[in-house]
């Protein structure tokens, strides 16, 4: 049986999706009919339920992927395809302390808080009060707010965090904050950033080399879905292509020796 206060997802056969927390006495109002929360409390995941208009919805536990796509937003969020790759490359896991700069609407913050678990922690910085307020609401809706410390301000003015496991920058000029990142990360920790253009990537790579980061990696993640029809399997007409360049690197104690084939001088 589904418990009171549990996060659930209703999916219609036409692709409509609703994620909400079960609350006795509440109702979900959709253009395909009204569904009472109390009626769902008597059901099990994996079953179909009907609205008052007779339209069927599949009742399931929401995935993190769907939760992120349903994040309330004022700006573009990081896509799950990028977030999943980021979590693996930055080794984000249980019990870690992760710092993020550029909270935005809180999609990445949600994934980080989910990954570090109840014994880990996320510290996230944002310069815009309105964005931070929205992110707080999004995390509270999921019950993850206790895993996150929200700080309002520019990390360029300095931060208190030290010896953190991972640091992610989602800001316009990440190269300007690399000295701050360097101070906060433990030796051999994990750094990551997302930028939309190649010139931003170049500026960041110069800064990483200057401040003794090694094993820099630059990539983008392209995602193409297929129509799940066994008799006529083919790609969808549209795909999720470029959303940003991901840059990863590791802070080291010894100076970085530039490659003999690498032109380190800016033109």
Could you describe the 3D structure shown?
This protein is α/β, with parallel strands linked by helices. It has 7 helices and 15 strands. The protein has 2 domains: 7-62, Vcp-like ATPase, Chain A, domain 2; 65-251, Rossmann fold (3-Layer(aba) Sandwich). The chain is globular and about 65 Å long.
Q: Over the alpha carbons, how many angstroms does the gyration radius reach?
A: 21 Å
Strand numbers in spatial order across the main sheet: 9-8-7-10-11-15-12
CATH homologous group name of the largest domain: Vaccinia Virus protein VP39
Main beta-sheet strand count, sense and barrel state? 7 strands, mixed
Distance between the termini: 65 Å
CATH T-level fold name of the largest domain: Rossmann fold
Structural class: alpha/beta
Count of DSSP helices? 7
Order of helices and strands: EEEEHEEHHEHEHEEHEHEEEE
Low-pLDDT regions: none
| Estimated share of beta-strand residues | 25-35%
Mean pLDDT: 93
Oligomer category: single chain
